[in-house]
Specification:
The protein is mainly alpha-helical. The protein has one helix spanning 2-99. It has 1 helix and no strands.
């Protein structure tokens, strides 16, 4: 009976060692995955920061372009007004020449 109990104890001790080794391996794998998750999170945070900065840059550029477009539209309107005024002056000059 004692031999049988000793054999069972030895078997259980061996299983315990196997389970402990497996648990250690799993903890190591878990730690590896945690590190990988952390790395991916940091990469994503960096990308978000980069994209946010780029978005801000593009927003400013868009505002600049909108202002420039408004300036050009105002200049175009001034040119149309000047052209109209020049045509009227030409018509007045022609009318004045015909009177003479």
């Amino acid at each position: 009976e004692a031999a049988r109990l000793q054999k069972d104890a030895d078997r259980l001790q061996a299983e315990r060692g196997t389970f402990a080794a497996e648990a250690s391996k799993m903890r190591s794998e878990r730690d590896g995955w945690r590190k990988e998750v952390q790395r991916v999170r940091e990469d994503l945070a960096s990308k978000v920061d980069e994209l946010t900065s780029k978005q801000e840059e593009l927003t400013l550029k868009n505002k600049e372009l909108t202002l420039r477009q408004e300036e050009l539209a105002a200049m175009g309107e001034e040119c149309r007004e000047a052209q109209t005024e020049a045509l009227r002056a030409g018509e007045r000059a022609t009318a004045a020449e015909q009177e003479v």
